[in-house]
Sequence to fold (302 residues):
Amino acid sequence: MAAAARPRPDSLTVWKLAVRLPTLTASVTPVIVGSAVAIREDVFDLLPALAALFAAVCLQVAANLANDVFDFKRGADTVGTRLGPPRASSSGWLTARQLFAAMWTAVGLAFLAGIYLTYVGGWPIVVVGLVSIVAAIGYTGGPFPLAYHGLGDAAAFFFFGIVAVAGAYYVQAEEISGLALLAGVPVGCTVTAILVVNNLRDIAGDRLARKWTLAVLFGDRLTRTWYALLIATAYGVAIAAIVAGERPWLGAVVLVSIPAAVGPLRGVLTGTTGPALNPLLKATARLNLVLGLSFAVALAAS
Fold:
């Protein structure tokens, strides 16, 4: 399928669009939360935390670049049907070869960080790292792309929530705690919510491309309910995790982030459609960061 040409922005703008810069907070938030659990349990270690942050961001960049290419090749990101921001492949701004080269560079950088993290945390880091790389590329690529078989939401929740938070904690503590696993749930829920808005917007185009996201399978109304359930679960688990600690009053700190949830929640539940969902997607990404930061503060102080 040939890419449809658009007027090309400057190279920096093109690459910012390709790596989806505003979404990268989704890989920053879990490391912050995992490190907050480490602070609470007196095992915080700065260098492993920074290495985990670097590896997480590199893997998300790799996933975003792979998505740009594979979604276009599978017909899910054509200029005529796309309702979101323009993509480098479908707009004809970058070739598949350029995007794959950048993707493997990002994977390579994550691998370098992984060498140090393996030295710190041992063989479990090798397993988690390799699985994460496969998932990053296999989200939209490979013989069984997760996003095309209704598994995108589960993958986002598991890898950006449970794995990323517990992994950030593990490389500092060299063990896994129940709190680290629990802390991954609110993060995973809000990251998944970002994806839900994206897929809600793209239901019609994804259906044509036979991209069977949960939004396509659920339909419009149930997808909106799913979004609300994810946000409610994120807050419920975050507050419960703090209230169960020695300073339950710190649960109020998590509530500071509620204003960031009101706008996107109202917009999704009141039936916003099409390109008008793009600001709600950005607002949900902002909620992921704001809730994560407030949750991390409460965890570290508890």
Q: What stands out?
A: Residues 46-73 form the longest helix (28 residues). DSSP finds 13 helices and no strands in the chain.
